[in-house]
What does this fold into?
Amino acid sequence: MSSSPARPERARPLRARITAPPAPRRRWLRRGRLDLVFIADVLIAVIAFVLTNKALTAANASNGGHHNPVEIIGVSFVLCAPLILRNRFPLTAWLASAAAVLVVGRFIITPHSIGTAAYLPAGVIVYGLCLYAVSVRCATWVVVTAGVVTAVGAIVINSPTSAAAIVLAAVLLLFGIFIRSRRRGREQLEVAERRHEGERALLEERQRIARELHDVVAHHMSVIAIQAEAAPYKTADPPPELVESFAEIRASALSGLNELRRVLGVLRSDTPDTAPQPGLDDLPGLLESARNGGVTVTSAVSGTPRPLPRGVDLSAYRIVQEALSNAMRHAPGSAVQVKLYYGEAALVWNRALEIDPTTDAAYVIGVQALERQGKYAEALKEAEKGVAIVGRTPFALSALGYALASAGKRAEAVKIANELEATWKDHYFPPTALALLYAGIGDADRAFAWLDIAYEQRDPQLIWFGVEPQFAPLHKDRRWPELIARLKVVEPK
It folds into this structure.
């Protein structure tokens, strides 16, 4: 039995919004699990510590020995140690280096106090490397802030040399931004290439399926149509009912063959010239065809008919078509009632609650319906009522969490999300529901983390991923088109 995927780390979202993960190392920069860049940082930090301690000890002795050995060792350590954190925590490393340079240069070893240099070389080298790491991996506002802090710090420590320090920092920042833009362009190109390869593999698989369907199904459908057309001529003076039945069989076979050819056209081409999809407007013809097949069909429409989204219209038609097909196959000659009801989601939800008031899914539908109408306070009351009646079930809690987030009570919604995460391994429910909740909270990183888990678990609810309006807050994230391409779902036009 496969183990469940680990929960997303709670500390990850804030860090991911500020600091990007390190770029994959080239082969010559790795030896198995060893990161040669990190090893180089450690070696540079150790060498800089030894040289700085030695140089400061000599300079201190030649200038009256105002600083004791422990103070010299401490200064050398705080100036060089931040370099070890640069690879994993660039922002933390820069903050530590900036604080060390400022405190040492302003209060402990001031410029020109025990030497001719305004800054200690080790501090400049470590600070420059940490500043470069920030410019490559941190958010734009962090990079700008680092530049401003560097300029102000240079003026505070030693105003006469501040211009040179600012120019050097600007060069490092610009170089880092240039490297980041190149990496981002390369990553986007790799994503586009992977998407193209996936689309090409999908098209090839579609073409293979189309060939197999054409070779097998289309052949048999053609034989049925031909035999149905020729059958009345095998009997002298066939009854009119028999001739009409064979004509219906032939018409159904030809209709199925045309539908099959349309589907094959969709499979063979990425942008096929497709015929209009059937919908509820074509329902009378479908009912008449069922009547000709020997089924007694009655229909009724309630509510106010209105235009439906294309996907909903097609789905409703296919549901009726499948139901009539099952009736003709398993209960020939039976009476079938087709009832079509046009109503609001809230009305459907009320009817579901009238049937079973302990249905948590009905409360989820009702809360969503009220939220889409902008009735956030009513949605929250209904969600709280649902939890009180059905208990703290995962679906009822997810509806409550989303309602809290929509009503502006983000802290309470986060508590609900944490409770669901804590019970997810023991009481499984679709990961997409948690992703939806985090999208409502505004935590895009956790939302995408749970969508990744949903993808790994093959969550059936992902079929609605591209058209679910509650995922709208994620649409502007750069990870959205990548996930759409990976899931191979279609976004609404």
